[in-house]
């Protein structure tokens, strides 16, 4: 294909991806009520504990409620339309890949996508504990009115950060497959990995929420060791394949 044909193909793929995103946003906009009810559950728990109505989600502008729904629709729409736009990306780059590269790419996506959503789910589990813990530092007589946009940004960003952190072990395996680092090399860095996982968990969760920190750090450490073990298995297969390809020794 010429450069012009590549650009036309790219435009066609982008149009399909945009249509998929638009459909996902429409569906997500319809279900924003249960989503908002779900992510604001910690606020209702706080209000119940206080025994008053001075803990609530606050919409400070005329368009704030609509803006929040649009932001939720866009974020959830990306997730809902992921099969469509991922396929468009894949269909665009696939003709230039070898059969071996296609197999590795499929394996990478098949491992990364579930891990990302698992990380987002773990983030959702952590969010209520974080909010309730932060509420406990509110001075006596003060109120908790959470700005809707800031509250949603906090929940969404925490989910994304933890989701991305769950994918990092997949990149380690990809580097091993590419021959950049061996499985033993990955395993030798386990002390650094544990330290980094603990530091990341401490930054992603409040300092006083030890349970959430340990849960997140523990999951990241397990994923690291799983990546190291899988990489060592690949190294063993590579070594065995290399031995099988050696020419037989001449008979004496």
UniProtKB/TrEMBL annotation:
Name under which the protein is recorded: Sec-independent protein translocase protein TatC
Pfam assignment, any one: TatC
Subunit architecture: The Tat system comprises two distinct complexes: a TatABC complex, containing multiple copies of TatA, TatB and TatC subunits, and a separate TatA complex, containing only TatA subunits. Substrates initially bind to the TatABC complex, which probably triggers association of the separate TatA complex to form the active translocon.
The protein's role, per its UniProt record: Part of the twin-arginine translocation (Tat) system that transports large folded proteins containing a characteristic twin-arginine motif in their signal peptide across membranes. Together with TatB, TatC is part of a receptor directly interacting with Tat signal peptides.
HAMAP family (UniProt xref): TatC
Membrane topology listed for this record: Multi-pass membrane protein
Organism this protein belongs to: Microbacterium arthrosphaerae
Family from the record: Belongs to the TatC family.
Chief location category: membrane
TM helices/strands, residue ranges: 12-31, 72-93, 105-131, 151-178, 190-208, 214-234
Keyword match Cell membrane: yes
Keywords attached to this entry: Cell membrane, Membrane, Protein transport, Translocation, Transmembrane, Transmembrane helix, Transport
